[in-house]
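Progress note, project year one: complex with flavin mononucleotide.
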Amino acid sequence: MKIQLIIGSTRPGRVGPQIADWLVANLPTQKLTEYEIVDITDYNLPLLDEPIHPAMNQYTKAHTKAWSQKIKEADGYIFLTPEYNASFPAALKNAIDYLYHEWTDKPTMIASYGVRGGQGASTHLRDVVELLKMRPTGLSPAFTITRDMSGEDGKIKNISEAFEPYLAMLKEAGDELLSIGVVPEAVIA
Ligand SMILES: Cc1cc2nc3c(=O)[nH]c(=O)nc-3n(C[C@H](O)[C@H](O)[C@H](O)COP(=O)(O)O)c2cc1C
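Model obtained:
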């Protein structure tokens, strides 16, 4: 089972990749799970410039085709989102809006961070994934990041110690994500 962890922030100096690395190092790994970090900055997506609704599957731009190809590779996703002005970043919304069928029915976990855990971002993103008929976990890890937790480089100081209290919750949410992806044997038979 392949799970892509999509980093929702794109700004220079962002903390997102550091948290993504911590997540991958601490997520449950049963059932031959493979995690892949996906950085939307690698796909150079402009503001949505496809003329036809993505549900029609008639992509015209090379960047859309490359983004679709990457997202199609996964069986499920973790959206890692910061909170910007009470919601999730516009760049993440744009990247989601580019595609449609790629998201349908896929197990999904939302992990957020911000001054109060990024709850606004998490709630708004849940509305979006539900509309896209994704299958979100009930548990959504939310990491509180205060200013005193960051060093001069903007990164979280000693993240393994700072995030230690979240380990149990992350395991529970991760197990839930993987269990959503499992097709019951009765259905296979
Ligand atoms: C434009 C902007 C708006 C922000 N708005 C909020 C906010 O509404 N609530 C919050 O908890 N944190 C807010 N923050 C703080 C971010 O959650 C925090 O800086 C986080 O590290 C950003 O993620 P990033 O470093 O991956 O970009 C904001 C940060 C930026 C850059």
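The CA atoms of residues 141 and 169 lie 7 Å apart.
The mean pLDDT is 95.
No further modelling is planned for this target in the current period.
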